[in-house]
Amino acid sequence: MDKDILNALSSLLDEKLEPIKSDLKEINRKLDGVVEQTADLLEFRSDITKKVDGIRDDLLQVELVTSNNWNEITKLKSVK
Measuring CA to CA, how many Å separate 50 from each of 56, 60, 63, 75? Predict the structure, then answer.
């Protein structure tokens, strides 16, 4: 009799846990997707950061050349 009760409780517990197990598998699948997307976003961020740093360097060079050009223009105007 005790064995029958244990078997009944075990099957009832398995029946109740099945949806939870299914939901847990779905959550894990979605979490794997989130982890993959996060890795892609981190790589994208790294690439964008490098490009922005390159643009900053280029802009600094443009500002230096522009400053030199203004100095040269001032010198040429003063010669007249």
Answer: 10, 15, 20, 38
